[in-house]
Amino acid sequence: MGERGMKLLLGLVVVALSSAGYGVVGLNIWPMPKSVNHGKQSLLLSKNFALDTEGSKYTDSSSILKDGFSRLLDVIQVSHNIDENSTYYDHSQLLKGLHVVIFSPYDKLQFGIDESYKLTVPSTGNPSYAHLEAQTVYGALHGLQTFSQLCNINFSTRIIEVHQVPWIIIDQPRFLYRGLLIDTARHYQPLPMIKNVITAMGYTKLNVLHWHIVDSQSFPLEIPSYPKLWKGAYSPSERYTMADAAEVVDFARRRGIHVLAEIDVPGHAGSWGVGYPSLWPSPTCQQPLDVSNEFTFKVIDGILSDFSKVFNFRFVHLGGDEVDTSRLNKKGLNESEAYEYFVLRAQKIALSHGYEVINWEETFNHFGSKLNPSTVVHNWLEGNVAPRVVAAGLRCIVSNQDKWYLDHLDATWDQFYMNEPFANITNSKQQKLVIGDIEQTIWPRAAAAAERMWTPFNKLAKDPRQVTGRLAHFRCLLNQRGVAAAPLAGLGRAVPVEPGSCYKQ
Amino acid sequence: MGERGMKLLLGLVVVALSSAGYGVVGLNIWPMPKSVNHGKQSLLLSKNFALDTEGSKYTDSSSILKDGFSRLLDVIQVSHNIDENSTYYDHSQLLKGLHVVIFSPYDKLQFGIDESYKLTVPSTGNPSYAHLEAQTVYGALHGLQTFSQLCNINFSTRIIEVHQVPWIIIDQPRFLYRGLLIDTARHYQPLPMIKNVITAMGYTKLNVLHWHIVDSQSFPLEIPSYPKLWKGAYSPSERYTMADAAEVVDFARRRGIHVLAEIDVPGHAGSWGVGYPSLWPSPTCQQPLDVSNEFTFKVIDGILSDFSKVFNFRFVHLGGDEVDTSRLNKKGLNESEAYEYFVLRAQKIALSHGYEVINWEETFNHFGSKLNPSTVVHNWLEGNVAPRVVAAGLRCIVSNQDKWYLDHLDATWDQFYMNEPFANITNSKQQKLVIGDIEQTIWPRAAAAAERMWTPFNKLAKDPRQVTGRLAHFRCLLNQRGVAAAPLAGLGRAVPVEPGSCYKQ
């Protein structure tokens, strides 16, 4: 038996070993693609697995595809150090690279852009290539994510394998809007944390980061037009510069993810008055925003003007939920009229800056017919509003709190899984109006012990209350550096008991 | 008033603003240095803040200092994007760089190495430099960490400031051994997680990562001499190659952190028999390791031989705790004698590979006088063994579980802080023998919803139990990529209810 036969035999051993591996049985792709066909063979990834874009109409001048491919190479190694042993290679089983063909030369990330892709991996070849076709580079990025999930490290041979070849995967999303909300007002999230969330969103093919930036508790974002607004931040260091926001938008865009910015007016804006007290109805009554003060609308206009230079998504979110209308006073208007007046005027300002508006469902419940017809109604209460919204011809984002609120720790993954946006909506025209939606044990306690071991005994506090403030400061520093340090108060891995500054938890 | 006066005025305004900032009052350094003197003025960090090593005897040929300085520049910006505005600069207040003088040309990281440093920051200069002196590069790294904690971003001026100048800080650790234990046997920790822990250890000046690598539940590490051992891993992907271990050691070393490897024999080694069943006393009795089998000691020798090529710390940890001695059977020896025989023979093997041995306290409690005199006894039960260990002339690591066990979630940071290694040890000679010791809400639930939104309705599982295995697989993939995804079982942010594979939680 010649050398080639020997290698083939080793190749077969590889296949046999890998078939016995964990997780190979069944189909391990998440989320499940639209159409999947696969075989039972295995291919080996070339050490020099390369990107080939011959025939592609997309020139990738800003390296979106190239960077995505580079991230693919990183994640398929899942951080392991592999000393490759080329003697195991059977060249008839070698996958030499990925051939990507993108049909559109444009990479402006617009809402509703084609996110489909077709991914095929052959079963043999000498050498062979996987093929990925997509209308847009963003569809191609989804294809790269799917391809990464077909790859497995074989720890015996030190080779990355593609199991279950040949593959034919044809895929596109069910909903154009697949959002995840982060709230940086109740708890400041450092930029590395936000980037980690965006990176993981890419893994699950989510495409909208709904950034609930500011709320009554804090105003962390710089607004150049009204520079005192971020005086409402929890502390000077719990802030985002506009350049920070631009970086988040760019980081997300390069992964095919839109950023939806929200200002939740008028009911969740108490922090605005820290810098501009006249926005409050009175010093003792700090909510909602004063509807009778023209300055209120000037500030909203300034914010949305500044937003429009950075947050280039088609939509802006204007909130409108949980408004204590009894405190809305404007001459000549009753409570309900004042609420409607406020929301509709804010909508007009947003429209003037080129945005379409998203509002929480209370606005629809109160004066749905008066909302601008381009309004998207955002459900958050129970599951019944969506059918009424789409029956009224408006678009709706479904994220009912009983099933899709991540901070409801008693909602389990299977309840998340079974929550159906189309519940009670059977008309296919109405269905099209539903656009979908949806890191503390070690620190700071180890830091407390670390001081006990480093610091001279006579310098140690005799009562821990003497160092609470300093340790709280250090814990905030850890958070800012991307370390998920838990609050000081409470037990290990505790969650903050209420909204507030990291310096106070 | 000339231009210079104007700038000085602005400079003063800057100082006034920053003095009003959060956290400036008091001394925010963690852990507290040995000696600190400071003033009340502020300096501004130059945009081109630079490292100067003139006069240093250390050539930094492997860039340990240069990389540490580069990390310093990163962390003081805490990931923010600052558009610097040089018009705010008052050059009499400018800190142009850090002058580092290291006296030792050597950078071999040895136990007991000099970790002291002296850091001074002047109050004026035109331009001025901060000065850092250290015997070793590792002392200098501690000085860089301290310097980073003196820096603050001023969001109004977009300049990084050093508050409370002038500074004179003279510092060195109280204990030479400041450890943190991670257990990768009960729960596999991906390399990015381990690196994050090491990075944060640097922030708190801890210097020993105690890596409890393997235990009865799993054997994740590759052992080239006995390649079937890691068949005891939870799954093929929950593994470390020896190259991974070497990378962890190197990553830690470059931050001045030792890696202490542990094999916990004979009582915590049930997983060893998955690959080599003859290590078990019998197929039904899988613990402790079979003391009557010469192969047991051959495997320990092979492991420690492989360890000695990668884990170059002076110590190795051989466990020895929680041994069910009633199952230790060796002809001619009673239970107690068999336990002693095992531990002392394992010690000899370790010594033959150049290691000094650390053992858990039970070994001392049973036959303390027989232990090799170089043995370090590791306390983990209550707080009373250390006085007896040091009275016997042996060294002791204190980490009593009631106060310094991170997985005891009911132990609060202030209990950690108040736990004193020298409790009941007043003799200073005996004190010298005490060497000290000590990242899930979003995922995978959002991933469940992501599939609901991406996948065609008719492809979605009607019963979530149909997709449990696939989602569990995806959750492990997220973990491996550095995302702290929680177990599937239980509530959001739940901790695993018991040891086990990520695929099964």
UniProtKB/TrEMBL annotation, chains A, B:
SUPFAM superfamilies in the record: (Trans)glycosidases (SSF51445), beta-N-acetylhexosaminidase-like domain (SSF55545)
Keyword Hydrolase: yes
Reactions catalysed: Hydrolysis of terminal non-reducing N-acetyl-D-hexosamine residues in N-acetyl-beta-D-hexosaminides
EC numbers for this chain: 3.2.1.52
Protein's name in the database: Beta-hexosaminidase
Gene3D superfamilies: Chitobiase/beta-hexosaminidase domain 2-like, Glycosidases
Biological processes per GO annotation: carbohydrate metabolic process; glycosaminoglycan metabolic process
Glycoside hydrolase family 20 catalytic domain ranges (all copies): 175-420
Cellular component terms per the entry's GO annotation: membrane
GO MF term list: beta-N-acetylhexosaminidase activity
Keywords: Glycoprotein, Glycosidase, Hydrolase
Residue intervals of the Beta-hexosaminidase eukaryotic type N-terminal domain: 29-150
Catalytic residues in the record: E322 (proton donor)
Family: Belongs to the glycosyl hydrolase 20 family.
Species of the source: Stephania japonica
Keyword RNA-binding among record annotations: no
Pfam families per UniProt: Glyco_hydro_20, Glycohydro_20b2
Top EC class, one word: hydrolase
